[in-house]
TrEMBL record:
Residues of the full protein shown: 178 to 400 of 400
Alphabetic keyword roster: Decarboxylase, Flavoprotein, FMN, Ligase, Lyase, Magnesium, Metal-binding, Multifunctional enzyme
Bound cofactor: record note: Binds 1 FMN per subunit.
GO CC annotations on file: phosphopantothenoylcysteine decarboxylase complex
Phylogenetic classification of the source organism: Bacteria, Pseudomonadati, Pseudomonadota, Betaproteobacteria, Burkholderiales
EC number: 4.1.1.36, 6.3.2.5
Protein name as annotated: Coenzyme A biosynthesis bifunctional protein CoaBC
Binding sites annotated in the UniProt record for CTP: D103, K113, P131, D132, I133, L134, F149, K163, K167
Protein backbone atom coordinates (compact mmCIF):
# COMPACT_ATOMS: atom_id res chain seq x y z
CA UNK A 1 0.00 0.00 0.00
CA UNK A 2 2.85 2.41 0.83
CA UNK A 3 3.92 2.00 -2.80
CA UNK A 4 0.71 3.57 -4.09
CA UNK A 5 0.80 6.49 -1.69
CA UNK A 6 4.27 7.74 -2.65
CA UNK A 7 4.10 11.34 -3.93
CA UNK A 8 4.12 11.49 -7.75
CA UNK A 9 7.34 13.50 -7.85
CA UNK A 10 8.35 12.16 -11.27
CA UNK A 11 4.92 12.26 -12.97
CA UNK A 12 5.33 12.46 -16.74
CA UNK A 13 9.10 11.97 -16.59
CA UNK A 14 10.90 9.40 -18.73
CA UNK A 15 13.66 7.61 -16.86
CA UNK A 16 16.33 5.16 -18.04
CA UNK A 17 18.07 3.12 -15.33
CA UNK A 18 20.90 0.60 -15.66
CA UNK A 19 21.21 -2.19 -13.08
CA UNK A 20 23.02 -5.42 -12.35
CA UNK A 21 26.40 -6.57 -13.65
CA UNK A 22 27.50 -6.99 -17.22
CA UNK A 23 28.81 -10.31 -18.45
CA UNK A 24 31.74 -10.41 -20.85
CA UNK A 25 32.35 -13.55 -22.91
CA UNK A 26 35.63 -15.46 -22.75
CA UNK A 27 34.18 -18.24 -24.88
CA UNK A 28 30.63 -19.64 -25.32
CA UNK A 29 30.65 -21.22 -21.84
CA UNK A 30 32.77 -18.82 -19.78
CA UNK A 31 32.35 -15.18 -18.80
CA UNK A 32 33.98 -12.45 -16.73
CA UNK A 33 31.57 -10.43 -14.68
CA UNK A 34 31.24 -8.00 -11.77
CA UNK A 35 29.63 -8.71 -8.43
CA UNK A 36 26.19 -7.10 -8.40
CA UNK A 37 22.85 -8.53 -7.29
CA UNK A 38 20.92 -5.76 -9.06
CA UNK A 39 18.90 -5.10 -5.89
CA UNK A 40 19.77 -1.40 -5.61
CA UNK A 41 19.04 -0.63 -9.25
CA UNK A 42 15.77 -2.58 -9.20
CA UNK A 43 14.68 -0.80 -5.99
CA UNK A 44 15.38 2.54 -7.69
CA UNK A 45 13.38 1.45 -10.76
CA UNK A 46 10.44 0.54 -8.47
CA UNK A 47 10.72 3.83 -6.58
CA UNK A 48 10.79 5.83 -9.85
CA UNK A 49 7.69 3.96 -11.05
CA UNK A 50 5.92 4.61 -7.73
CA UNK A 51 6.78 8.29 -8.20
CA UNK A 52 4.88 8.30 -11.50
CA UNK A 53 7.78 8.01 -13.95
CA UNK A 54 7.81 5.98 -17.15
CA UNK A 55 10.74 3.66 -16.48
CA UNK A 56 13.03 1.65 -18.78
CA UNK A 57 15.32 -0.66 -16.79
CA UNK A 58 18.33 -1.85 -18.80
CA UNK A 59 19.46 -4.86 -16.80
CA UNK A 60 22.42 -7.17 -16.93
CA UNK A 61 21.94 -10.76 -15.76
CA UNK A 62 20.30 -10.90 -12.30
CA UNK A 63 18.08 -13.35 -10.44
CA UNK A 64 15.39 -10.67 -9.90
CA UNK A 65 11.90 -10.48 -11.43
CA UNK A 66 11.08 -7.41 -13.55
CA UNK A 67 9.53 -4.75 -11.29
CA UNK A 68 5.81 -4.21 -11.87
CA UNK A 69 5.02 -1.46 -14.36
CA UNK A 70 8.61 -1.10 -15.55
CA UNK A 71 9.86 -1.97 -19.04
CA UNK A 72 12.92 -4.18 -18.61
CA UNK A 73 15.43 -4.58 -21.43
CA UNK A 74 17.71 -7.56 -20.79
CA UNK A 75 21.34 -7.29 -21.83
CA UNK A 76 24.54 -9.25 -21.22
CA UNK A 77 27.66 -7.32 -22.17
CA UNK A 78 28.64 -3.69 -21.63
CA UNK A 79 28.43 -3.25 -25.41
CA UNK A 80 24.79 -4.49 -25.35
CA UNK A 81 24.02 -2.22 -22.38
CA UNK A 82 25.62 0.74 -24.17
CA UNK A 83 23.49 0.13 -27.29
CA UNK A 84 20.25 -0.26 -25.30
CA UNK A 85 20.91 2.90 -23.27
CA UNK A 86 21.91 5.04 -26.27
CA UNK A 87 18.70 3.97 -28.05
CA UNK A 88 16.60 5.50 -25.27
CA UNK A 89 18.74 8.15 -23.60
CA UNK A 90 18.12 11.03 -25.99
CA UNK A 91 14.37 11.00 -25.24
CA UNK A 92 14.78 10.54 -21.47
CA UNK A 93 14.52 13.28 -18.82
CA UNK A 94 16.64 11.35 -16.34
CA UNK A 95 19.36 8.67 -16.55
CA UNK A 96 20.42 6.77 -13.41
CA UNK A 97 23.48 4.56 -13.91
CA UNK A 98 23.43 1.93 -11.18
CA UNK A 99 24.91 -0.99 -13.13
CA UNK A 100 28.30 -2.46 -12.24
CA UNK A 101 29.57 -2.27 -15.82
CA UNK A 102 32.67 -4.30 -16.66
CA UNK A 103 35.48 -1.89 -17.48
CA UNK A 104 36.96 -4.28 -20.02
CA UNK A 105 35.85 -7.02 -22.41
CA UNK A 106 37.93 -9.90 -23.68
CA UNK A 107 39.34 -8.75 -27.02
CA UNK A 108 40.38 -12.27 -28.04
CA UNK A 109 37.21 -14.10 -26.96
CA UNK A 110 36.92 -17.48 -28.65
CA UNK A 111 33.97 -18.58 -30.81
CA UNK A 112 34.49 -22.14 -29.60
CA UNK A 113 35.00 -23.51 -26.12
CA UNK A 114 38.64 -23.20 -25.07
CA UNK A 115 40.10 -26.62 -24.27
CA UNK A 116 42.79 -27.52 -21.80
CA UNK A 117 45.82 -28.55 -23.84
CA UNK A 118 48.52 -31.06 -23.05
CA UNK A 119 50.76 -28.49 -21.32
CA UNK A 120 47.79 -27.19 -19.27
CA UNK A 121 48.71 -23.57 -20.05
CA UNK A 122 45.91 -21.12 -19.14
CA UNK A 123 44.71 -18.98 -22.07
CA UNK A 124 46.36 -15.58 -22.60
CA UNK A 125 43.32 -13.30 -22.37
CA UNK A 126 43.64 -9.82 -23.79
CA UNK A 127 41.40 -7.05 -22.55
CA UNK A 128 40.06 -3.99 -24.34
CA UNK A 129 38.20 -1.09 -22.69
CA UNK A 130 34.39 -0.88 -22.71
CA UNK A 131 32.55 2.35 -23.49
CA UNK A 132 31.81 4.50 -20.43
CA UNK A 133 28.03 4.62 -20.75
CA UNK A 134 27.42 7.23 -18.06
CA UNK A 135 30.13 9.61 -19.27
CA UNK A 136 28.82 9.33 -22.83
CA UNK A 137 25.19 10.02 -21.85
CA UNK A 138 26.34 12.93 -19.66
CA UNK A 139 28.02 14.48 -22.73
CA UNK A 140 24.91 14.26 -24.98
CA UNK A 141 23.70 17.69 -26.08
CA UNK A 142 20.14 18.06 -24.67
CA UNK A 143 20.63 14.72 -22.94
CA UNK A 144 18.94 13.60 -19.73
CA UNK A 145 19.88 14.79 -16.24
CA UNK A 146 22.38 12.17 -15.03
CA UNK A 147 22.91 10.39 -11.73
CA UNK A 148 25.96 8.17 -11.26
CA UNK A 149 26.90 5.63 -8.63
CA UNK A 150 30.21 4.74 -7.05
CA UNK A 151 30.69 1.62 -4.96
CA UNK A 152 34.07 2.01 -3.35
CA UNK A 153 35.94 -0.07 -0.78
CA UNK A 154 37.88 2.85 0.77
CA UNK A 155 38.25 6.67 0.68
CA UNK A 156 34.61 7.00 -0.37
CA UNK A 157 34.38 10.80 -0.20
CA UNK A 158 37.55 11.43 -2.14
CA UNK A 159 36.85 8.85 -4.86
CA UNK A 160 33.19 9.83 -5.22
CA UNK A 161 33.80 13.59 -5.60
CA UNK A 162 36.54 12.94 -8.14
CA UNK A 163 34.29 10.52 -10.02
CA UNK A 164 31.40 13.02 -10.08
CA UNK A 165 33.63 15.57 -11.77
CA UNK A 166 35.31 13.10 -14.10
CA UNK A 167 31.94 11.80 -15.34
CA UNK A 168 30.45 15.31 -15.56
CA UNK A 169 27.27 14.44 -13.65
CA UNK A 170 25.33 16.74 -11.31
CA UNK A 171 24.65 14.02 -8.72
CA UNK A 172 26.70 11.01 -7.70
CA UNK A 173 25.63 8.45 -5.12
CA UNK A 174 28.42 6.78 -3.19
CA UNK A 175 28.32 3.75 -0.98
CA UNK A 176 30.83 1.38 0.51
CA UNK A 177 30.71 -1.94 -1.33
CA UNK A 178 31.15 -3.86 1.92
CA UNK A 179 28.01 -2.13 3.40
CA UNK A 180 25.76 -2.79 0.47
CA UNK A 181 26.83 -5.59 -1.82
CA UNK A 182 24.33 -8.42 -2.10
CA UNK A 183 22.43 -7.37 1.03
CA UNK A 184 19.04 -5.71 1.55
CA UNK A 185 20.30 -2.52 3.22
CA UNK A 186 22.56 0.27 2.05
CA UNK A 187 24.00 3.60 3.17
CA UNK A 188 23.92 6.27 0.46
CA UNK A 189 26.09 9.36 0.46
CA UNK A 190 24.97 12.01 -2.04
CA UNK A 191 27.56 14.22 -3.71
CA UNK A 192 26.55 17.31 -5.68
CA UNK A 193 27.88 20.81 -6.34
CA UNK A 194 26.50 21.92 -2.96
CA UNK A 195 28.44 19.31 -1.01
CA UNK A 196 27.71 16.04 0.72
CA UNK A 197 24.53 14.56 2.21
CA UNK A 198 24.79 11.29 4.16
CA UNK A 199 21.62 9.21 4.38
CA UNK A 200 21.21 6.76 7.25
CA UNK A 201 21.54 3.01 6.77
CA UNK A 202 18.19 2.00 5.21
CA UNK A 203 16.53 -0.89 3.43
CA UNK A 204 17.27 -0.63 -0.29
CA UNK A 205 13.56 0.12 -0.84
CA UNK A 206 13.62 3.09 1.54
CA UNK A 207 17.03 4.30 0.34
CA UNK A 208 15.68 4.24 -3.23
CA UNK A 209 12.62 6.31 -2.22
CA UNK A 210 14.85 8.85 -0.47
CA UNK A 211 17.07 9.05 -3.53
CA UNK A 212 14.09 9.64 -5.84
CA UNK A 213 13.00 12.53 -3.58
CA UNK A 214 16.53 13.98 -3.65
CA UNK A 215 16.61 13.68 -7.46
CA UNK A 216 13.14 15.21 -7.91
CA UNK A 217 14.19 18.20 -5.77
CA UNK A 218 17.18 18.82 -8.08
CA UNK A 219 15.73 17.91 -11.48
CA UNK A 220 15.27 20.96 -13.72
CA UNK A 221 11.62 21.77 -14.50
CA UNK A 222 10.28 20.50 -17.79
CA UNK A 223 10.51 23.11 -20.54
N1 LIG B 1 29.62 3.27 -15.63
C1 LIG B 1 29.10 3.19 -16.91
N2 LIG B 1 29.82 2.56 -17.89
C2 LIG B 1 31.03 2.04 -17.64
C3 LIG B 1 31.57 2.10 -16.32
C4 LIG B 1 30.84 2.73 -15.34
O1 LIG B 1 27.98 3.67 -17.15
N3 LIG B 1 31.70 1.44 -18.62
C5 LIG B 1 28.86 3.98 -14.58
C6 LIG B 1 28.39 3.11 -13.43
O2 LIG B 1 27.11 2.58 -13.70
C7 LIG B 1 28.39 4.09 -12.27
C8 LIG B 1 29.52 5.04 -12.61
O3 LIG B 1 29.73 4.94 -14.02
O4 LIG B 1 27.21 4.87 -12.25
C9 LIG B 1 30.78 4.78 -11.88
O5 LIG B 1 31.24 3.47 -12.13
P1 LIG B 1 32.60 2.98 -11.50
O6 LIG B 1 32.91 1.61 -11.97
O7 LIG B 1 32.53 3.25 -10.03
O8 LIG B 1 33.59 4.07 -12.13
P2 LIG B 1 34.77 3.95 -13.15
O9 LIG B 1 34.80 5.27 -13.87
O10 LIG B 1 34.65 2.75 -14.02
O11 LIG B 1 36.04 3.89 -12.22
P3 LIG B 1 36.70 2.64 -11.37
O12 LIG B 1 36.04 1.38 -11.75
O13 LIG B 1 38.16 2.70 -11.74
O14 LIG B 1 36.49 3.02 -9.91
CA1 LIG C 1 34.49 0.63 -13.17
Amino acid sequence: LVAFTQPKLLAGRRVVITAGPTSEKIDPVRVITNRSSGKTGYAIARAAHEAGAQVVLVSGPTALPAPHGVRRVDVESAADMHAAVMAGARDADLFIAVAAVADWHVANASGNKLKKNASNQPPALQFAPNPDILAEVARLPDGPWCVGFAAETENLHEHAQAKRQRKGVPLLVGNLAQDSMGGDTTTFVLFDDQGIEELPKLSKTDAARRLIKAIAARLPRKA
